[in-house]
Amino acid sequence: MQYRRINIQKTSGGSVMKIKKVAGILLAGTMMISMAACGGKEEGAKSEKLIVGTEAGFAPYEYMKGNEVVGIDMDIAKAIADEMGKELEIKNMDFDGALAAVQSGKVDFVAAGVSISPEREEAMDFSNEYVNSTEVIVVNKENPAVTPAGEELAGSDLDGKVVAVQQGNIADIWVSNKDNCNPKEVKRYTKFAQAAEDLKNGKIDCIVMDQYPAEELVAANDTLTTLDGTLFEDKYAIAVKKGNKELLDKINKVIDKLVEEGKIEEFTANHVQSE
After folding, report:
1. Which of 92, 202, 245, 269 is buried most, with the most CB atoms less than 10 Å from its CB?
2. Is the pTM of the predicted complex or chain greater than 0.85?
3. Rounded to an integer, what distance in angstroms lies between the CA atom of residue 275 and that of residue 269?
4. Residue 221 CB-density burial (10 A; 0-12 exposed, 13-18 middle, 19+ buried)
C-alpha cells in the first residue's frame, strides 16, 4: 500500500508539474497574442491616416479658409486619400520644412506646388505632373523697378535687381541660376505676404512667382501689379519619400484619373472663382 501511495504521489506530482508547464505555455502564448493584437491595433490606427505636408500661403493651390487648409492641391490630396480608404491629415508648414518632412517620413507626401528639379530628384520621388505653372513678375504699380527690355519678359530684365522669391520653390531655383539671370540680390521669403510688404515699401524691386498666386497677391494689394508676359513655365507634381514606390503608384493612378476626367481643371476653377 505504501509503495502504491508513493507511486501515486509521484504520478500526481508529475501531473501537477506538467499542468503548470502547460498553463505557463498557454499564459505566455496568450500574452504574446495580446501584445501582437495591441501592436496590430496601433499599426492599423496609424495606417488609417494619410498625412500630407503643405504651405498654406500659395493660393489657389493651398490657402487658409477660416481654420481649414483648402485649395487645388488639397482637393487632389483628398481624392488620393479617398481612393486609398484613408483619412487625410493636413500638416501646414514652411515650404522647405514640408520637403524635409517627406524625406524624413514625418509626412507621407507633399502637395504644395512642388516643381521637379534634378537636385530634388536625388532626394525625393515625384508623381506624374498634374498642372502647368506660369511664372510672372510682380512689381510696384506706382514705381515699377523692372520693365521689359523687349516684347517678351526675359531673365535679363532681372539683372542688377533685388528679386524676391519663396524660399526653396522653383522661382528660387530659376532666379539663382546664373544662366538665367544675374540679379543684384535674391531675397528669400517663407510667406509672399511678407514679400508684398517689402515691395510696397521699396525694399525689393520685384517678386517672381506663379501666375495664380500672383493674381491673388495683386488683388489683395492695390499698389502692386503683374507685368504682362511669362518669365518661364514649369509643372507641378507630388513629392514622396525616396523609394516609396507603393504609395507613388497609387498617387499616379489617382492623378491620371483626375486629369483624364477633367477634375484638375474643375478644382482650379472652383478655387480661383471662390477667391
Report:
1. 92
2. no
3. 10
4. middle
